[in-house]
């Protein structure tokens, strides 16, 4: 069984590849072939960059916001658990004091 290793590309490389497509006027497939990458990657990077530009945000700020959202959701879940525990404890002690 052959194991393929996944290649990772820097943000600078991705941005430069998309810039080449925009400025050269060449088809995405040709630029991808010239860079030695799969054309579907270049299509995806271009779409992500267009989406980020439409939102007025860069890739980095989108990732930072996504990371913050994940952290806030985790914190929210912990706070909900603590709240539920305190509700049960209050109910328990209210019963006990009667």
UniProtKB/TrEMBL annotation:
It holds the Pfam family HTH_Tnp_1. Keywords: Coiled coil. It comes from the Bacteria. Residues 62-89 form a coiled coil. One of its GO terms (biological process) is DNA transposition. GO terms for molecular function: DNA binding; transposase activity. Transmembrane segments: none annotated. This is Transposase.
């Amino acid at each position: 069984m052959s194991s393929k290793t996944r290649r990772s590309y820097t943000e600078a490389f991705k941005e430069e590849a998309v810039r080449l497509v925009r400025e050269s006027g060449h088809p995405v497939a040709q630029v991808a072939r010239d860079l030695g990458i799969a054309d579907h990657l270049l299509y995806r990077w271009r779409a992500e960059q267009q989406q980020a530009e439409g939102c007025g945000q860069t890739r980095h700020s989108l990732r930072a916001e996504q990371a913050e959202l994940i952290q806030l959701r985790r914190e929210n879940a912990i706070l909900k658990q603590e709240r539920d525990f305190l509700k049960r404890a209050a109910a328990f002690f209210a019963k006990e004091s009667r």
